[in-house]
Amino acid sequence: MTDTMDAITADRALKAKHRAMWGLGDYPSVARDLIPELGRVLVAAAGVRRGERVLDVAAGTGNAAVPAALTGAEVVASDLTPELFTAGREFAASQGAQLTWEEGDAEALPYPDASFDVVLSCVGVMFAPHHQKAADELARVCRPGGRIGLISWTPEGFVGEMFRTMKPYAPPPPPGAQPPPLWGDEQHVRQLLGDRVTDVVARRQIVTTGGWTSPDAWRDHWKSVYGPTIATYRNIAGAPERVAALDRDLAALAGRYDRGNGTTVLDWEYLLLTARRA
Ligand SMILES: C[S@@+](CC[C@H](N)C(=O)[O-])C[C@H]1O[C@@H](n2cnc3c(N)ncnc32)[C@H](O)[C@@H]1O
């Protein structure tokens, strides 16, 4: 009993930390300015239709939920960080979309079994620390014959490499937590979902980001807007030589990827995976 209580307390503390992390910086600008196409790509790939009940897990500001609602579907945008819903509501209003916003942990979704026709997550569920728990929840709330659609950064792509670059500087992950970009590995996701899905279709695609004057400018922008990067810098704030080293490492990463001519242009690889609930 005490062990169970300890585990519940530890999980609550971890989720509170994650919630605070995603509230840092300016995630809404990342979704709005850098990766808005991902939501539309996911909604199209999952074939969301008018009248369907759709859940967007780890929806953030509604990158997928808003285009899903614009099809005429009945959409719930769920996220651990309700602070993001203010920007999400503004985004939805600007698009003329109507949907519901609800706080929820991807590892313990507050919905009955089989309550949605389509369950989506756009670079979202990958950040829940316990992959099997989260995958079990995606499968549980999707009705038999419904669809699951996921976009996840790949381990080999830019964002996966960025997380590997930050790892030596970040606080150690809690026991049992798995690295987010593993969700970008098709075999990993197939294993997580197992025989609860059929018709798995997976492909790697690219979203191109740009507009920075240099790799250094990308880094300076990124360390001011992206919660996980801000949290990593906070972890080493007392060690200026480590801050300088991370500055160098991130700029070097962006420098290696930069294919721009005069401005910095970066291709970010993701896995787009759709499946049918058995
Ligand atoms: C990179 S953002 C993606 C947001 C949005 N889907 C998009 O495409 O812009 C990751 C999101 O995962 C959410 N998140 C992290 N851990 C979560 C968890 N355990 N349960 C639900 N949401 C979580 C964060 O609050 C954040 O909104």
Automatic annotation (TrEMBL):
Keywords: Methyltransferase, Transferase
Domain Methyltransferase type: 55-148
Domain of life: Bacteria
InterPro entries per record: Methyltransf_11 (IPR013216), SAM-dependent_MTases_sf (IPR029063)
Record bears the keyword Ribonucleoprotein: no
SUPFAM superfamilies registered for this protein in UniProt: S-adenosyl-L-methionine-dependent methyltransferases
GO molecular function terms attached to this record: S-adenosylmethionine-dependent methyltransferase activity
Transmembrane segments: none
GO biological process terms held by the UniProt record: methylation
Protein's name according to its UniProt entry: Methyltransferase domain-containing protein
